Amino acid sequence: MNRVATFAVLYLRGPNWDDSLPFHEQPGVVRHRDFLAAAHEAGTLVFGGPFLDDAGGLAVYGAASVEELESVLATDATVIDGLLRYEIHPYAIAFRND
């Protein structure tokens, strides 16, 4: 059985981000939402959402390794198209209210 680690992913504006448009109007952003919904359904995405200042967003994923997570993130059309880029950080959920 693979041990699942937790990773925080910061989604940031990529090189093809249009500064004249808010996040929800960026070309292709619906594909990012669909990618996240599929990752959530698959149990990989723990939680996530956009920053309200249009600077990007935060998602927390479970994966066996950074490499495994990168292979998942590499399928996000908005990353492929350069709308978004990401940073991966190992993450511990130290406090939680359910």
CATH arch. level architecture = 2-Layer Sandwich
Helix count from the secondary structure assignment: 3
- The mean pLDDT is 93
Determine the structural class based on helices, strands and strand pairing.
alpha+beta
Q: What is the share of helical residues? A: 25-40%
User: In this structure, how is the largest beta sheet organized?
Assistant: 4 strands, antiparallel
Q: Which fold name fills CATH's third level, the topology?
A: Alpha-Beta Plaits
Q: Order of strands across the biggest sheet?
A: 2-3-1-4
The secondary-structure element order is EHEEHHE
CATH superfamily: Dimeric alpha+beta barrel
Can you tell me the overall shape? globular
Number of strands: 4
Q: Please indicate the percent range of residues in DSSP E strands (runs of 2 or more).
A: 25-35%
Query: What is the highest CATH level, the class?
Result: Alpha Beta
**The number of domains:** 1
Tell me which oligomeric state these chains represent.
Answer: single chain
